[in-house]
Each structure stands twice: as structure tokens, then as C-alpha cells.
């Protein structure tokens, strides 16, 4: 394995080689896709490969609820084209459709505040850069701003304190869109800001204050990172792959010369919460970017337009993936021609040229998915982001159009029912297990959603084959209605719940013959009416369908429950509310997941209750110990062992009931768009519409 300027240390090469092999397994066959597939939208998870899903981070086909009538596509404000007619003929626009207003144009708010939804992720993808990235299609771990891989971690004693340290060289031909050079100071600035201002959410995932002490600029193009060698109790610490290679290596890098004064002013706002609010509320104008596009116009509820950056340092780079696993880049400046993961010989599986190949990209905002699909059919747009999935009727509409095409790929998303485990009855495992037993995932996904989604039991979807555990507990699978009710009642009674009247199914198993009454919790209190927050059918029929049926099944068991179908933003506000401990019962949401599954630590470790995305307040010392070990694991083999164990633990302890993965489908106009490829885990949407490599005919 050769770098541009020297050799890879063999101790580190062993790690990155295994990463490449596992990621290759993901892309090349260890991820069976159950039939056609779709995608989602939700808060983006800690972005170590993303989104996710973010947060994410992240359903749409419907049944059991009234279908939403097709909406007439809104006319977005037309972008301004060049005045010269000849120039207009060559001015290329990538017209895309989204059906939710992006939350923010402030990257700090997107990554560390309440603006971390998938719609915002699409729009802001042209702003930040990172030290490392994933390759196209195969998702090899490769340098981006970094000039090669990091030096091996070594233990140093500085000022009487021990640290694990490593250095990373930066490319010298990288510039912000305004012409300023990208340097180590930009990286240090973001890390220092995140640590000083205690930024949470995704920042907490990639700049982990429990492991990272500080970073420094050794020179304009060399950064040095310092990780703690001991925790506050004197126990040894070591930065595992989720903390370093797939953590800090994916931290966003933003321009200090633009954001420095904004951050300095925000730090004068008072306490930490006030400082964060001041930073997140800043509306950037003429912000320098490092990822191919700059913001031009943002028309509320109409469209967002980004235009091609004039001097993006990656433009013109040619990328070659070889069937033997090798990865090669040809840099147009000839400064950074590199080959990783073996010798670049033999057949080439993918060859692409980094753009952007378009002058402008426009994200047209529609009121619903129906409206966006109608706009696609009408020729107003050429691609629709479908993070929620596509119900069968809309799929059939697209298939009937001669100039449109649908492609399907394995999804890297989950939809789930979450519990507020801070309070009774959700803090009782037997109750959570009873709820999981009552939910007939196969009935909803197969019968009601007509195969547009697939039942799921693990936090790592089947599509992410290198990390998925197929042997987790599959609670409730294969049971009929009578068996579900009987087992749920038995679980509740075993956990200390009592009934005045126990529910009973009819002899034929078709209906509840005797309704459950007087269910009391182990404390002796009557069970209050519980609430399930879920997106409305207008936003996501898949999740609303699940909510309605879960409400019915819980009431069948004598558990008084009401599904509250509401706006996506309302749910997000509740999850981030100061009163979440008391106000939240259950909620149905989803995550668009990262490739490296460190999100399980982020979602469920108790340290992430206050400043992270452990919204349900889940706290289990045994899981915390597993997750802590995962953070210290520094090999793929150890990380994978821990990931399998965490999946098993969560499937049994049930802080979430994982419900389904959506069928992942991309719809576009092939007569207008030429994608370099359409087959990849997560599909076209997962890589933000391939906006830096698509070509317009």
C-alpha cells in the first residue's frame, strides 16, 4: 500500500486493510436486499459515516389510514439564469425535490443543535470538509483533506500527564471557496470551539470530550491530536476506532477566518446554553465552503439554490476502484496521485471524475411527497429525495412514466418505537417486552404496507452486512394474535402488573372478546393513558400506520394508549425539550445510520442522556460497560465482536423496539441525469443525490 509520499506503517496498514475488506463486504454481497427498497428522514445520527441520520440520523407507504390526495405541485421561484442566451444554453441545473423545509442554514446548528434533520443534510452537504471520508460505492476509508493516513498512536508524557498522540499531514492544495488556504488552524478552531462551548449531538459523537484532550497545529499543514491515556478514576483509556479513525477523523472542518469572529461574539453571551444559542442563531452570508458548492439563495418554503464553487480543490480528481480492492486517485495537479489497499492492477469496477459537473443545484421544497412526485412526473424536477420511502401507488405512477426510472438498494436505516425509561411503566423491562410482543411487524409491513418495508429486530440493518447480527432475539416473530395477547399478559403479570379483568381473545382469534380492565402498575397505581408521538400520515404514512396499530394492540391488552400523529418538527422539539423527562412517553422515529455502527453507543450509553441523543434516558450499567469497551477497541475484529454483543443486548433489553427498515427506492429521470453508478448501500439518496458527480444531458 503506497501513499503519495512514502509508505504506510504496517501496524496501521493492518487496521486500514481490514476496514477496506469489511467495507468491501458491505458493498459486494454480504448485504442481501430483501426485495425492492426505500429510505427515510429523521434527525441525523452521530456522523461518523453517515447518517444517517445523522442522526441519522432515519417511512412512507400507508395503509389503515386515509390516503393523502395528490397535491398539485407548487411553482417554485425560478432561479436566475445567465443573461447571455448562449451562456444560458450551457448553464446546467440539477433540479431536485424535497418535501420538508430544511431546518437551518447554520452548519453548527445542523451538526450540534436542533437543526440536524436529513433535509438540512442534503442542502448543507457542500459546506464542510473532513480529514477522512468514504469512497464512492464501496465505502473504503480514504483520506480527504488529510495527506495520507495518520501516524500510529504513541504514548507521550507531557507536563506529568500521559496522552495517546498521533499526527496527520494536510494537503497543501486545499482552499476555501473564497481563496483562503485550508490549514491546520481551521481544524483546531472547530475542535476547540466544540470543547469550549460543550457542543453536543453530532459534535459530541466526533469530538468526544471524555477521550479527546486537545489538538494543536504543529505547522500550517500538520495537526497533532492528544487523547487521554487515563479516565478521571485513573483507569487506562485508549482511543478506539470509533473515537479516532471513525470519530475525530470525520469531524467537520469550517473556516476560522469566517466563523472565528462569530464564535468569539457568541462566547460573550453568558452561560454555555446562551453561548450555544448565540452561535446557532447566526445566519451565515457569503460563507466560504470546502465541498464543491456555495450558497446562493434560500427562499423559505420554495427552494434552496447552491452554485458551483469556482476553485474547489477536488474538482477534476479521477477515482478508480479495482476489483482486487485497490483504490486509486489521479489528482489534476499531480500533487496527490495516490493508491491505497493494494496494487492498482487488473479490472476496474468503477471510474468517476469528481465535479461538480453542474453550475447550479436547486432543492425545490414541496408540501408533501405526493406533490414532489407529481413535479417529477411533470418534468419540473429530475430527482426526488425519498428518505421516507415510496408507497406502492407512487411507485406504480413512476413506473408508468416512460422517461422515469426507479432503482432499489439495501437500506441503512431503522424505524423504531422508543420508551422514556426514566419513568414507570417504561423503566420496567417486562412492560417493554410485552409491548414488543404485541406488535405484529410482519402484518404491518407485509399486509398493510404491501412489502414497502421490512420487519427489523436489530439496530444494525441487514443491508450493513459486515456489522449486522442475524442472531438477535426476535421477540414476537411468528406468533398469532391469541399467542401475542396471552404472552403479553403473562409478561406483565410476571413483572408485577395486575388486572381487575384480564383481556381474552375470542376462540377463533379474530377479536378481543373480553377487554382488559383496571391494569395497575407494580407501584399499585392505575395505568395512566400513555401517548405515542408519531409523524402524521401526510408526512410519513408508514410510521403513522404503525402508530395506529400499536395503539390498537396496546388497548387490546388493557394498556390505555393514544397515538398522537403530529408534525415531524413537533416531535423533534419534544425530544429536545427541557421537560422531556416528564412529557415524553413513547415515540416513533427513525435514524439514517452510519456505516460504522458507533451510533449504538451514542443512542444508548447513559453519558449521552444530557448532551446527546439518548432521548429515552436509557441507563444500564451492563450496556454502558459494553459500549465503553467498544470505544476503546482499536481493531476491526474487536469492534465487530462488541457490535454483535451490543445488538444482542439491545434486542433483549429493548430501550427501542426496532420496527422496520423502509424499502429504499430512488426515482429520477435518466433522459436528463447521468449518475456514475446507482447501486450502493443506501442508494443515491444516502450519498446526497451524487450531486458532485452527476452529469446533466
Describe the fold and architecture:
- It is a single chain.
- With 697 residues, this protein is an alpha+beta fold.
- It has a domain at 141-258: Alpha-Beta Complex (Dipeptide-binding Protein, domain 1).
- Helix content is 28%, strand content 20%.
- Strands 3, 4, 11, 12, 17, 18, 19 and 28 form an eight-stranded mixed beta sheet that branches.
- It is globular and about 75 Å long.
- The two termini are 38 Å apart.
- The relative contact order is 0.18.
- The model is unreliable at 1-78 (pLDDT under 50).
Number of strands: 30
Principal-axis shape: globular
Largest sheet entry: 8 strands, mixed
CATH topology of the domain at 141-258: Dipeptide-binding Protein, domain 1
Provide the CATH top-level class of the domain at 141-258.
Answer: Alpha Beta
The CATH architecture of the domain at 141-258 is: Alpha-Beta Complex
What is the name of the CATH superfamily of the domain at 141-258? Dipeptide-binding Protein, Domain 1
Query: Unreliable segments (pLDDT under 50, ≥5 consecutive)?
Result: 1-78
Return the structural class: alpha+beta
Number of helices: 20
Amino acid at each position: 500500500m503506497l501513499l503519495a509520499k512514502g509508505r504506510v506503517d504496517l501496524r496501521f496498514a493492518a487496521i486500514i486493510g481490514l476496514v477496506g475488506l469489511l467495507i468491501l463486504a458491505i458493498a459486494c454481497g454480504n448485504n442481501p436486499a430483501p426485495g425492492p427498497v426505500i429510505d427515510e428522514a429523521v434527525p441525523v445520527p452521530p456522523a461518523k459515516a453517515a447518517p444517517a441520520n445523522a442522526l441519522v440520523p432515519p417511512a412512507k407507504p400507508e395503509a389503515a389510514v386515509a390516503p393523502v390526495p395528490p397535491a398539485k405541485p407548487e411553482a417554485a421561484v425560478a432561479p436566475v439564469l445567465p443573461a447571455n442566451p448562449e451562456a444560458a444554453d450551457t448553464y446546467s441545473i440539477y433540479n431536485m425535490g424535497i418535501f420538508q423545509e430544511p431546518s437551518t442554514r447554520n452548519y453548527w446548528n445542523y451538526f450540534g443543535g436542533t437543526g440536524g434533520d436529513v433535509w438540512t443534510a442534503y442542502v448543507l452537504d457542500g459546506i464542510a470538509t473532513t480529514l477522512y471520508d468514504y469512497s464512492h460505492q464501496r465505502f473504503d476509508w480514504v483520506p480527504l483533506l488529510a495527506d495520507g493516513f495518520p501516524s500510529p498512536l504513541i504514548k507521550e508524557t507531557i507536563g506529568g500527564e500521559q496522552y495517546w498522540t498521533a499526527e496527520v499531514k494536510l494537503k497543501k492544495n486545499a482552499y476555501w471557496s473564497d481563496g483562503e488556504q485550508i490549514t491546520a488552524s481551521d481544524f483546531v478552531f472547530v475542535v476547540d470551539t466544540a470543547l469550549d462551548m460543550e457542543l453536543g449531538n453530532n459534535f459530541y459523537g466526533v469530538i468526544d470530550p471524555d477521550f479527546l484532550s486537545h489538538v494543536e497545529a504543529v505547522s500550517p499543514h500538520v495537526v497533532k491530536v492528544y487523547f487521554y491515556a487515563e479516565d478521571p478514576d485513573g483507569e487506562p483509556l485508549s482511543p478506539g476506532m470509533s473515537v479516532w479513525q471513525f470519530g475525530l477523523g470525520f469531524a467537520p472542518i469550517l473556516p476560522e477566518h469566517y466563523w472565528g469572529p462569530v464564535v468569539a461574539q457568541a462566547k460573550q453571551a453568558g452561560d454555555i446554553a446562551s453561548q450555544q444559542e448565540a452561535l446557532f442563531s447566526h445566519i451565515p452570508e457569503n460563507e466560504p465552503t470546502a465541498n464543491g458548492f456555495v450558497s446562493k439563495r434560500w427562499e423559505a418554503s420554495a427552494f434552496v439554490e447552491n452554485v458551483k464553487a469556482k476553485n474547489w480543490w477536488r474538482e477534476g480528481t479521477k477515482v478508480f476502484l479495482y476489483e482486487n480492492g485497490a483504490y486509486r486517485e489521479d489528482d489534476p495537479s499531480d500533487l496527490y496521485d495516490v493508491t491505497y489497499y493494494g496494487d492498482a492492477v487488473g479490472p476496474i469496477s468503477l471510474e468517476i471524475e469528481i465535479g461538480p459537473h453542474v453550475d447550479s443545484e436547486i432543492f425545490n421544497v414541496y408540501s408533501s411527497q405526493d406533490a414532489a412526485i407529481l413535479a417529477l412526473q411533470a418534468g419540473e424536477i429530475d430527482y426526488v429525495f425519498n428518505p421516507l420511502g415510496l408507497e406502492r401507488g407512487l411507485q406504480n405512477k413512476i413506473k408508468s412514466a416512460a422517461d422515469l426510472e426507479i432503482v432499489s438498494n439495501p437500506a441503512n436505516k431503522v424505524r423504531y418505537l422508543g420508551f422514556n425509561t426514566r419513568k414507570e411503566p417504561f423503566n420496567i423491562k417486562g412492560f417493554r417486552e410485552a409491548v414488543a410482543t404485541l406488535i405484529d411487524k410482519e402484518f404491518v409491513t407485509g399486509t398493510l404496507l404491501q412489502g414497502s418495508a421490512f420487519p427489523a429486530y436489530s439496530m444494525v440493518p441487514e443491508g450493513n452486512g459486515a456489522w449486522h447480527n442475524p442472531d438477535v432475539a426476535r421477540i414476537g416473530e411468528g406468533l398469532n394474535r391469541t399467542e401475542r395477547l396471552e404472552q403479553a399478559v403473562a409478561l406483565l403479570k410476571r413483572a408485577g402488573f395486575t388486572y381487575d379483568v384480564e383481556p381474552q381473545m375470542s376462540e377463533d382469534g379474530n377479536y378481543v372478546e373480553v377487554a382488559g380492565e383496571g391494569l395497575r402498575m407494580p407501584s399499585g397505581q392505575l395505568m395512566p393513558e400513555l401517548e405515542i408521538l408519531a409523524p402524521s400520515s401526510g408526512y410519513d404514512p408508514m410510521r403513522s400506520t404503525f402508530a395506529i396499530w400499536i395503539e390498537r394492540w396496546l388497548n387490546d391488552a388493557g394498556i390505555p394508549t393514544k397515538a398522537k400523529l403530529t408534525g415531524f418538527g413537533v416531535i423533534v422539539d419534544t425530544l429536545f425539550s427541557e421537560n422531556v423527562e416528564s412529557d415524553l412517553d413513547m415515540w416513533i422515529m427513525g435514524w439514517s445510520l452510519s456505516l460504522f455502527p458507533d451510533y449504538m453507543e451514542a443512542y444508548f450509553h447513559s453519558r449521552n442522556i444530557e448532551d446527546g441523543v439518548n432521548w429515552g434516558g436509557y441507563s444500564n450499567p451492563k450496556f454502558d460497560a459494553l459500549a465503553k469497551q467498544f470505544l476503546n477497541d482499536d481493531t476491526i475484529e474487536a469492534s465487530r465482536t462488541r457490535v454483535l454483543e451490543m445488538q444482542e443486548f439491545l434486542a433483549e433489553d429493548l430501550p427501542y423496539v426496532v420496527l422496520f427498515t423502509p424499502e429504499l427506492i430512488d426515482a429520477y429521470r435518466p433522459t436528463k441525469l447521468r449518475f456514475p453508478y446507482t447501486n450502493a448501500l443506501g442508494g443515491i439518496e444516502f450519498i446526497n443525490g451524487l450531486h458532485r458527480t452527476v452529469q446533466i444531458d
